[in-house]
């Protein structure tokens, strides 16, 4: 993971209602002038106050989120987060345009090709000249400040994500396991995330 520091050029654009199968969310649009990318934050319920907010920081995965790929667990994780927030009645999802752990869609397809030849997800990124995880979470800071969110209960299996947020001064009150979507096509991928990237999985599930 890398960060540009806190000189982040994030602009709030507009908000609108977003009806979903899990209930009514509010969608907040942000533009990143430095990367020319657009990010979305979904909120549900009253997000004000000091009580930690149920939250998911989700990096875009076109193949998993929209094309129902079973090579990863991204789509099920996104849907499970929306469901859990709906049950809680309040929460937030940060949908960050950082495809392929930050390497972009076309490079992700190249990485998939290398995985087809036997590389794991980390080896494939490294063979393409990238780090194992190139995502930049510093873009979250201005979004949280705009929405006046003080504290998070983070739905994640990734302790590095928790540390990245804490290092920026974001209060993570609790890490909540978020394990779903395991299938025969992504078993090696999940094992690599656990073994090489430090993700915390309950192997009994």
TrEMBL record:
Pfam families, per the entry: GTP_cyclohydro2 (PF00925)
Domain GTP cyclohydrolase II, chain residue ranges per copy: 15-177
Record: active site: 133, 135
Keyword presence, Signal: no
Required cofactor names: Zn(2+)
GO MF entries: GTP binding; GTP cyclohydrolase II activity; zinc ion binding
Keyword field contains Nucleotidyltransferase: no
Protein name: GTP cyclohydrolase-2
Organism: Cellvibrio japonicus (strain Ueda107)
